[in-house]
Design a protein that fits this description.
mainly alpha; 71 residues; 4 helices; DUF2281 domain-containing protein
Length: 71
Amino acid sequence: MSYDILIEQIRTLPEQLLMSVSVFIKFLQSEQNSVLTRHTEVKSKQAFFDLAGKIQLDCNAVTELREKSLV
């Protein structure tokens, strides 16, 4: 799934949920160009895990989003 699709799907969430993930959306948008650049330069599992390690999510926020999305 591309970042564009992911961002668009997140934007369809109710407004109160968007507040919780707005920082994450901004991160994805800012990293999108550098991810594409790094992907073409280095194609390795280590590069993938290095990028994945930069994503920080608050456990409580993720749990709250999950619970609200089930309603």
